[in-house]
Amino acid sequence: MITANQYLMVGAILFAIGVLGFLTRRNIIVLLMCIELMINGAGLAFVSFCRQMGSLEGQVFVLFAMVIAAVEIAVGLSIILLVFRNRATLDADEMESLKW
Amino acid sequence: MVEATGLFNKLWLVPAIPLGGALFNCLLGRRVSNLVVSIVSCGSIGLAGVMSLLLFNALLKLPPAERHIELSVYNWIFSGDFRVPIDLLLDPLSMAMITMVSWVSFLIHVYSVGYMRKDESFARYFCYLNLFVFFMLLLVLAGNFLVLYIGWEGVGLCSYLLISFWYERHSAASAGLKAFVVTRFGDFFFALGIMLVFVQFKSLYFGEVFPRAHEVLTPAMATWIALLIFGGAIGKSAQVPLHTWLPDAMEAPTPVSALIHAATMVTAGVYLVARCYPIFQLTPTALCIVAIVGLLTAFISASIALVHNDIKRILAYSTVSQLGHMFLGLGVGAPTAAIFHLLTHAFAKALLFLGSGAVIQALHEEMDIRRMGALKGYIPSTCWTFLIGALAMAGIPGFAGFFSKDAILHATFVNGGMLSWLIMIVTASFTAFYCFRLFFNTFFGEKRWDSHVEHVEHPTQVMTIPLILLAGLAAFGGYMGVPHALGGADKISSFLAPVFPPAHHTDGGSPSKALEIILMAVTSLVALGGIGLAYFFYIVPGGRETPGRLQQTLSGVYKFLSNGWYFDKVYQVVFVEPFLKAADFFWQAVDNSVIDMAVRGLAGFILRCGEVVPKLQLGLVRWYALSMVVGAVIIGYFYLR
Amino acid sequence: MEIIFPAVNIASIAPQLIVATFAILALLVEVFSKSSRLVFATCLVGLFVAFALSFMQWGRGIPYENSLVAVDNYTTFFNALFAIVAIITMLLSLGYVDNTGIDTGKYYPLILFATLGMMLLVSSMDLLLMFLSLELLSISMYVLVGSQRDRWVSSEAAIKYILTGAFASGFLLFGIALVYGATGTISFTKLESLLSGLTGEGLPLLKMGVLLMMVGLGFKIAMVPFHMWAPDVYEGAPTPITGFLSTGSKIAAFALILRLFNNPFNHLFSDWVGILWILAVLSMTIGNVAALLQKNVKRMLAYSSIAHVGYLLVAFIALSTRAMEAVVLYFTLYAIMGLTAFGCITSLTSGEKERLKQEDYTSLGYTQPVQAVILSVCLLSLAGIPLTAGFIGKFYLFSSAVDAGYVGLAVIAVLNSAVSLYYYLGLMLRMYALPGRFAPVEVPVGSPVGKIVLLLLGFSILALGIYPSPLVGVVKGAVTALSAL
User: Fold this and answer.
1) Mean pLDDT of B407-435
2) Which residues on chain B are in Cβ contact (under 8 Å) with C397?
């Protein structure tokens, strides 16, 4: 029997993978995917809490969070496109003309 | 205390309207024509003047005991229990002051329109001038020490700006700086005095300080506070030993000298002491010092004025001397006489300065009276108005200065003793002499102008009309205070009386009318004598050589006087040079090695951080994310612990 | 479980609705008429109407029984403030956007969407609405930052902003999930009543959740250590948007933090005091020190805005009514100062060339006297010189901190203000350096509207420095609503 707590753990692990991935990867598309992982980890946590408490708000929240994630990805990809047109690179470490 | 109602609620308009004029001239002055600038600036002062007359009328309708109106305009800062209110106070003293300030300013503004008509910085000039009037009105209307101090510093700032108005001239710039530094020196004491008041009373509000002064203050503390406040007054009102800035301040455009350095700002010190009179009354020591300083100043600067040749500097020293009269009046327990003299002096001196401005302009910036003469035929209106000013200044019976000066001399005789009265009599003869030396040398005798003066420039209408109006005031202004001895009602004293509670130690009973009349006769005779001497020296053909011979026989005295009793030299030797030397020493020995290491070390360290810290911004997204995560972990460690 | 459709009181959220409606309307106008002027006008009308409506709503709060949106003076005050900030941003953008390759058809509606996000953020009484409005604000801002499509810095700023911003909102979302898990509710009112009695099991989860939420919100207000994005994004963004970002977006998030810690999370605040004390010191010091030697003026102001967050935290720690008043007052004053500073830079743009380097400002007082005077007033105010708005603001902030017993913190804040004088006055002195060998740089063609707006802003900085009491009164009214819950 899988308990709600275990779902929660999976959610937390997903979130952590997202964070670590964000810190280690260089490709900006992968970075966006890591953010997606974080959001989904949070979503999983919401659903598991929902299940635990039997309230509806968490599920509503997840739906909205998914929409927001989609919007973020859409806007993010369009900005990536803009960046790519300007510099023809997707390496996050090369975007460092603004510093100090 | 009477809460402001009706018209008195609009009291704040009196300073606010000139401020509006200043803002307009500052923001739009350069965009609009000079005509608009003149209309706005003169109009705003005129409106303030009308407003003050309306208030005057309303105030007179109140019974004397209720003529004390307080208006809390707003709270500048109101946070918790801490409150910095902008309070205004209208009582007979501030009423008299705002009426004089607004109307004299108005006339001088009008005059300035003519005087400055060719100047490129027309709008800048009127911006400063309006701003000055705003601060001056704020100063005299202040209902607490903080507002008074804001006005006090504000007029100082405007004075600095206006002295250095022609900042391309080196002398103007350095005179402005001198005025600023010297008056700031006095302001430092004043600020200390205000702090001491706050420590003692836990309030800066006049309504809480003055009525409780005699309960709260010990005599020693009262003396300290009074002397610190008087320190500020010495600086601002150019009293010995801080008087040296005022003659240098004559670098300002002449209407500015008339407004700031004769009629209004320099009298702020007198006003301040009068305002704080409840504190001064507690301490005979302080009053005595005020009287001595006033007496010395009156005598010293009148003697210096005897020998100077620069038309504006003579008037400047005369101003210092007359301010000394006022302080003497305050010191000998005659504050109403001092304020009365303040008013009449403002009329007469503004008139003399404006007249001298017309003379200077007529002769194309000539200021040396040895190179003037015979101007009566060229600029008659200036000549005759100047004569009235000189008569008023000399204290000839019937003119404004006579009544007020007499009141002061009378109080000096009664409370200050014979010696000080005698010194003042000598001073009175000096005053009459230098006024008419100036008058005769300028307007009579033969032409002694430089050849470059091809035509004498006539003052325009806007310049002569203020002259005539001021002459009227200088001639008849004294009738608001005709003493009882001459069958007058002495209206000004009874008007001002509620402000100054009856003194304990002055008033040696009511002196006999006969004595008063005798004193008056003596002063008038002495003044006439001074004029006669001036007439003999500078008009009578045979007498013309006398001044030169006198100068040779008394060359020591002459040098002493024309160097202004060596005040500047002494300051140079005693203060400035040792200070520079000490500064040099400290710079070489102490600063470079010790302090510099410390200060520059600290500053250098901070600047070094300024180089290093931004380097943490690597510009990399991953780095930023890492800093967030690490930061969150550290915060989390402390938070969840 | 049955779903009850909530009753919607349209009138109570009229300002927000109006902004939303006009934003969509403007997009439609853009599609059908292609006239950027018409789009501009539509957006401006919408904001003015929203401002007028919030003006009328003042003092007519509605009790929030299970409502998603708080309709109280606090909300109303910020609705009006954000409407004004947006209006000023739009007016200052006028000449700038046409010269720098920005698609005006999307630019102005996006400002409205961002404004809507701010308004809803401050009025939200529910974690869901809070999250959604924060995202609405953020996403609009991402696009606005990247709206100069031909300039690399703009694109770089946008990609940095969206990556770090989305990263931060991931934390926020997870934090919300944990709070929800610990309490079982997402409504502020319920949270408050639940939290007062919460002990034991749920507490660590809740605290973890609040911590993660603070990461997300701390990012938005650019508080150290979540500030690193700010200088880069501020520097790269189109200048009017930098102003918008540094005022509107920051204030909205901070105002929300105020509401959170006053109402739902009030019981947790005592744990935060020590941490915020350190963060306040770090924000002030790092911001000021990093600004000292900046060559780029926009970047300098970005660091200085981090320092100002530190000043705000100084008072925020006290969390008394007086401190809240001080903070909200400072929001308003800072909004004016920030808009003025970035507005001056905007209006000094000539063609494609912006004056970004310190050198570009040498002797500006002689070539561009109006902007130079306004910028000087603004810099003096940012430094906190008396008789300017900044002095009043700082006085209220620091005195309320002293009042609450945080004397040491106030002293550090004052010392920091002293350090900040170095770079504020440095720029000002540079503007009034006598022109010598420096050839005058080309004359900018700022729009007259922008200049008038700047004059008004500069005037209001002085006016509020001399006569702040009306604003203080309004702020007091706004804060009462906050503590009345």
Assistant:
1) 87
2) none
Determine the distance in angstroms separating the CA of C121 from the nearest CA of chain A, rounded to an integer: 15
Query: Looking at the predicted structure, is the pLDDT value of residue C439 above 60?
Result: no
Of A18, A46, A72, nearest to C177 by CB-CB distance is: A46
Structural domains in chain A, CATH included, are 4-94 (1.10.287.3510)
Q: B21 is written with which tokens? A: 């004029």
Q: Which of B84, B609, B618, B638 to mutate to test the interface with C (most CBs of C within 10 A)?
A: B609
Closest-approach residue (CA) in chain A for B618: A99
Percent of chain C with pLDDT over 70: 93
Q: How far is A46 from chain C (nearest CA, A)?
A: 5
d(CA C326, CA B95): 38
**What is the rounded distance in angstroms from the CA atom of residue A77 to the CA atom of residue A67?**
15
CB C67 within 8 A of CB C485: no
User: Do B640 and C419 lie within an 8 Å CB cutoff?
Assistant: no
What's the ipTM?
A: 0.96
* Chain C interface test: which of A72, A85, A90, A93 (most C C-beta within 10 Å): A72
Pairwise CB contact (< 8 Å): B621 & A98:
no
C214/B635 CB distance under 8 A = yes
Interface residue B632 vs chain A (CB under 8 A): no
Of B617, B622, B626, which is closest to A92 when you measure between CB atoms? B622
Q: How far is it, in rounded angstroms, from Cα C306 to Cα C285?
A: 9
Query: How many cross-chain Cβ pairs, A to C, lie less than 8 Å apart?
Result: 123
Per-residue model confidence as pLDDT tens digits over B310-340: 888 889 999 999 999 999 999 988 888 899 9
